[in-house]
Amino acid sequence: MTHPLDPVLYPRTVAIIGASKDPAKRGYRALKTLITDAFDGRIFPINPKDGEILGTRCYPSLDAVPEGIDLAIVCTAAATTPDMVEACGRNGVKGALLLAGGFGEASEAGRLLEERTVAIARRHGVRLIGPNTAGMFTARHSCNAYGRPDIPRGPLALVSNSANVLRSLELEIRFQGHSGISAMLSVGNQADLQFHEYLDCFGDDPDTRAIISYIEGFKDGPAYLAAARRVSPRKPIVVYAVGRTAEGKGAARSHSGSLSADHAVTRGVLRQAGVVLVEQSDHLFPVADALMLFPPMRGCRVAVLSEGGGPISIAAETLAQCGLELATLTPQTQQKIHAIVPNATAIANPVDAGGGTEPRVEYYGSISKLILEDPNIDALLLVGFFGGYVTAPTRYGADVADTEAAIGVELAADMRRLGKPVIVQSHYAHLKTSSLDALRKAGVPYERHVETAVRCLAHAAEQGQMRRRLAEAETTPTQPVRLPAANAIVAAARSEGRDLLEPEARALLAAHGVPMAPSVLMKDAGDAADAVARLGGVPLALKIVSRDVLHKSDVGGVRLDLTGAAAVAEAFDAIVRDVRAHQPDADIAGVLATPMAARGVELIVGVVQDPQYGRVLMVGLGGVFVEAMRDVVFRAVPVSKADAIEMLGEIRAQAMLEGMRGLPAVDRGAIADLLVKVSSLAIAYPELAAIDLNPVVAHLDGYAVVDSRMLLAGA
């Protein structure tokens, strides 16, 4: 099955516009690498002054080329690009790789030049890579338009904002020596083709098994998320993302808006789409390489096998830091291991393969098999000397090289047979011993450092969880029905050019199935007795209702724990007096009376428009210090129940959700249901610029929405 971008990214006919005999110019290097890397297609250098370059016939223009062109590599200056793209369109060229800089990244004049170029390309249906790109390499037909020879071939696709990061990854892959590159591409300005289109194409490439990206920003974040959701169940997508959005930092009309200007948004929405997000750039390749080799990881329980020593302690600590469990082996497994190494100092997990005396490499094979067969274990980590016994044959035996290599092959076979990842941390990794070579060729990754190996397992566990969630998540309607009564509330606020008042926001929530406590809107202090009677005589909370007051407590607009009509009437007058003192011209619609909420954990639930990803849902610790704590989690809407449950599990203050200081654990199912309903409401009413429920008091029996705010776009 072919992809629409196949002719552009995997061309069979290539024209080099601006081909040159000068080795210092891109027009020479592009032709040189296509020839030396044995491009499996036909090359047409375009140069009106030379008859041939590097033994290849030149043509004076694209018009003179005798056959159709899949890809044109444009090596000329930026000012010539519109004319070159026009020529491509006139001759039916499918795609153009624009190497020159000096476009939108450089100046306003460059931006206009870029827009003009794109308009010409779209008129003719020519797809553009770049401009301002370092080039492209794809292995399928040996199309090396990157300008560097002998790029190692293999199953990894690299797509990056930065050519320097690509170079670093290429050199790392070259040094490692066991993997290679199926595609390598610098996206440049993404004037036409963007990250999500490359992801979609490489996701369909049968020769690509994992995709690595360094990303500084998306031009179409929602499209990337959609592409990632399609690709991630089939292939690992490993990303290092940088950058913050200046637009988001100014979105402070609500708590949700002020919190969205954070890398947490990127982390949340990419995870939701199945993307593995690494926190260190040097983890990009090892994590992708490991995930490509591993079977799907079923859980978080890891066993550690070593000959003893400090690496075990480092491994145990790093596993805990990464959220992995050092699970205890079953008594049956421990008994079998004890029979192999009766003098071992540890067999429950971690396991001492040294036998308590002199390490013996042959123990690794039999013990590893027992560990992987244990039902309590999801993955195996070997740390220490394995892979290095071969360096000391006089100490460990003349046949140690064969023994160690054979165990590596057995580890790989057991990993695949039992469906449990295996990774080796070896002190000898940089020596690339013959044993480690055999291990990696068999399909087991190895790393020099314990922390990197553990991170690979942590991301494997994360990927397994993400894939299960994507497979099992319930379908959430993308176009919920707008209810007539709720629609009338929004329409009335829009007609008056204002945000929703709190009673209106509460009515909108109730209409969409969110349980809301009863309330009474008091117009003056004389309504106090009626409010107390209607609300059952329970302690009340009073809040100002005004289109001009966003943060009620900041202006004295809140009073709590009021009992009796007299106290309520007095509080009404005090609230109005304090608000007038701060905002004399405020339009006061009244004071809202509601029963005091039960004790619980204060959360914030909100929806805001993110400049990169569109509408995102947020949940986290709430209350008056929400911006200071910033313990919040994001997902793109719509969210499923599975998404919502996962969000709650990512809040850092898990102890508060699980119950502390005499409070019971919160009802996570009820909060997850609230998140799904708020997500659905946001989709039903796209004119809502922000939804801000803070606090939502969560407790054992559900939750109470204590304060609700909804902002309209343009209000």
Verbal overview:
The structure is a single chain. By secondary structure, the chain is α/β, with parallel strands linked by helices. The protein has five domains: 1-146, Rossmann fold, CATH 3.40.50; 151-294, 3-Layer(aba) Sandwich (Rossmann fold), CATH 3.40.50.261; 295-444, Rossmann fold, CATH 3.40.50; 484-595, ATP-grasp fold, A domain (Dna Ligase, domain 1); 601-712, D-amino Acid Aminotransferase, Chain A, domain 1. The protein contains 26 helices and 30 strands. The strands form six sheets. The protein has a seven-stranded mixed beta sheet with strand order 9-8-11-10-12-13-14, sandwiched between helices. Strands 15, 16, 17, 18, 19 and 20 form a six-stranded parallel beta sheet that branches. Helix 4 (108-124) links the parallel strand 6 (95-98) and strand 7. Helix 13 (331-340) runs antiparallel to helix 14, helix 16 runs parallel beside helix 17 and helix 19 (484-495) runs antiparallel to helix 20 (502-511). It is flat and about 95 Å long.
